[in-house]
Amino acid sequence: MGLINNLMVEQAKVDIQQYLAREDGELLFNERDLQMHLAQHLMGTGHYDDVDVEYYVPYEELDNYIWKNELKLDILLCKGSEFLPVELKYKTKKHPKQLSRFGERLKRQVDVLKNQGAQDLGMYDFWKDVRRVELVRRRFRAVKNGLVVFVTNDNQYLNKGKTFSNNYRFSMEEGSHDMVRHWQQPNSTCAKTHPDFELDNNYVISWNKNVYEGVEFYYCIVEI
User: Fold this and answer.
1) What is the span of the domain harbouring residue 96?
2) What is the pLDDT of residue 184?
3) What angle do CA 187, 135, 195 make, to 5 degrees?
4) H or E segment at 204?
5) Which of 4, 39, 51, 5 is nearest to 145 (CA)?
6) Domain count across the chain
7) Are 147 and 84 in contact (CB under 8 A)?
8) What share of the chain is helix, strand, coil (3-state, %, to 5)?
9) Which residues of the chain have pLDDT under 70?
């Protein structure tokens, strides 16, 4: 059974990488847009028995789940009797585009990508997803692995963490990262609204790049 899941996680990484590295990639409006397009791609590969989205897990089922809010896994892959959760983050900075709708070119440009900013909270949310998948794996025997995918056109996420920054422990620079996710300033607003936590393992981030409709995007896939 474990062999099935090991093969599934490796296949899923290949399939997601294939989707993100595609040459004809289009600009996606938001995270939900990415979720639906990626789920459709994964279903189309024929590699999985089922592909679900917004897979609900009551957070009360998970030990040491500190956020006390609804847990809906972005994508859940199923093969045989095993499951692979996939969490997504899609963080953007502003980019306008002239769209066509109903076969006609619109008169005005539209901000297809919005300015999300708040990179410190974006990094926090990424590592929070890693932690949530860890807790799901702990609780359910049929979950042996998971994937967390981060996609952005904001290259600030790739920057090396500065030791004096409040968000230093949430850095997403390329390379190895330890288990501690604590704010440097415990009395800051971020620390009061987004609690510290620790991970079960160290993780390595490796960034890739692609260009969608003339816009540079960066993405990483972390296996849990």
Assistant:
1) 2-223
2) 96
3) 5
4) strand 203-205
5) 5
6) 1
7) yes
8) 30, 35, 35
9) 1-5
